[in-house]
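Ticket #4471: complex job returned nothing on first submit. Input attached below:
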Amino acid sequence: MALTPVENQTPAFTAGVSAVAGGFAGLFVGTAQGSGLMGILIGAALMAVIGFICAGITDKEKPVRWALLAAFTVAGFALGGLPTAVLGILFGLFFGWFAFWLATSRYRAHLAPYLTPGQVLWHYTFRVICGAIFVFLITPILVVMPLSFNAQDFFTFTPEMLRFDPEGYSLKHYRDFFGSDQWQSSLRNSLTIAPAATLLSVGFGTLAAIGLSQPHVPFRRAIMAILISPMIVPLIISAAGMYFFYSRIGLQGTYFGVVLAHAALGIPFVIITVTATLVGFDRSLTRAAANMGANPVTTFFKVQMPLILPGVISGGLFAFITSFDEVVVVLFVGSAGQKTLPWQMFTGLREQISPTILAVATILVVISIALLTTVEMLRRRSERLRGMSPS
Amino acid sequence: MSDSTSSGPVLAADGTPLKRSLARALRMQKMRALMLIAPLLLFVLLTFILPIADMLFRSVENQIVSETLPKTVVALQDWDADSGEAPGEDVYAALAVDMKAAAEAKLHTRVGSRLNYEKPGISSLFRKAGRKVKKWDVENGGPFKEQFIKIHKGWGDPDVWRTIQTYSPRLTNGYFLNAADMQKGADGAEWRPENEQIYWTLFIRTMIMSLAITCSCIILGYPVAWILANLPARTANLLMILVLLPFWTSLLVRTSAWKVMLQQQGVINETLVWLGLVADDARLVMINNQFGTIVAMTHILLPFMILPMYSVMQTIKPTYLRAAKSLGATNWTAFWRVYFPQSVPGIGAGSILVFILAIGYYITPELVGGTKGVFISNRIAFHISSSLNWGLAAALGTILLVVVLILYWAYDKIVGIDNVKLG
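Support reply: We reran it on our side without changes. The output follows.
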């Protein structure tokens, strides 16, 4: 959708702006090759020419972009083989698009017509800054995934990996994970503790959330503050308190003790998500059900539960992931028999650094993507059920 | 009909006054709500609040001295600590009886290590004495004073006796004094020597680093929240995934990722060396120091800043900015005078949340903080699992808890805990 009628830019403007971008990229290529200054000069000159061509001489966008892509790829390959060729492809794609984006003034088309050039520049600078922050948010996860396929026991990209040599990649860390008794027993422990804790916190939590969302609850604020507190109190304090107390009553180092502790930590998440779902709950529905002769239990299971189920499930997923991810409390309340996956990772990171951790990390990222998708879908479903338009 | 209603109280169908009937119905409703909440409340009280209360009590509890050395404590009451002399024979006789009983029950080393927290070196006195006293005839083997001093000349030191006397009551503020870098001297509480003041430094460092993390979260989170709130809903939802994905990813995954990124042979250093920006022998030290902790924790806590900011910014209408600009405000004035003040509640909510979470962090500082980048939590964990000085750990924990609860209270006042949203 174009807000502003635009016409093509002058060759001088396109060449100038392209040259700045080219000089910036050239700086990095140049330093990698030995001389930053030469890189800037060559990059700027090259992009000035390209910009001039795109804006002044030709308007056949497609063939020029393909030609640029091919030229950059070949140049990259000539400079340093396969890894730089990949960089060349990226450069070619970007600069081909960039030059024409400038030349045809596409960048201006969907911005309000009254903006000054300075404001347009700021608009895009701001986007670039935000992009950098998004990259910051996501990079660590993106770095872990490829590294987990490393054939060496290194925590960094080996030259073989950068050359895209199949020799540099292997599934050996995954084999380690699935083959080692330690990892497998910790996985089993995690998978027995988390569901039990989740069941406890969802069971108690849903009931309490329904109670809390009734009108006229005395001491509502204070009760809420107590129920949310496990999320706020620093984990180390909860862990210390539970360690002292549970060892007094003989629960320290038992499966049951860890489950109780994790259930307490998961409760705030259940309360928050379920009360949020109940905010939009139409109370006349339960009254209608009672009117037609249903007893409270039937009303709950037949009318209220199906409507708040998405909220309950996503609260349960939050509780599950809380328990599944938890290290500090299990470290104190549990004993060697309850060693969970995060505990094993924690000792792995602190003592013997083995890249098996990266394989486990990748598996956990995949699990969390699956959970995130589920929660998102449930949220939309819940909003549809309650008659809101899903955003 | 109308006559009867105007003359008497309004009656419900069963003949009771309507007012009472309504009150009863309300009471029923309240009771039912409380009945639904009760199981969970009980559960949280038992599994969570009670343990914490127990920990709070542990920070002042001090029964071990008076339980293990009951007779000595009584005998020692009359001794004047300022006399500069060791107590008389009666105290030593009582000590011999207590010590023999304690050594037979193998309790004497526990008292020794308890008192050792207050006066280093005292535990060896108890260990040595315990071994010898077991063979003594405590009924008529006296006088004991010389025999004790023969075992270890420390038993003649008035300072040792003062320590035992000071810590004989059942409750003590000694752990709290320790946690505040103070000690019980000859005349009340006094500061420890300058070079032994570690906890104060640690608290200050925890505060400063949490503040630094909160600030960097504001700086990084504000633009992201702004762009999420101002983009078309479809694009914003897609970008939101980039914010929520780290939020849902295991804490350890993210911490290990930062370890991989920041270490000397790590991804960032390798890239910088490859680009030629950093010489191979001058790689940046970015891990096991404060920088590493701040970067990793900013990344981990950033979603907690972005989400509240986003939900506040969504409610600010973009027309306000346009109106300001059309009235002649520059970009900056329009932002600073019109948009920013409306977004302050979001910043406040996010900041308190991030600060509360940062101040008690344990895992990330432990793994990427080295020695300079650790927090007070790491010290608490050390006292629980390594030095076994549980009272001091409890006292440090209590101080941290008080700080967090004050912030929690502020959060409740400003934002309201009902308004906490997840995702």
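The longest helix of chain A spans residues 61-103. Closing as resolved unless it happens again.
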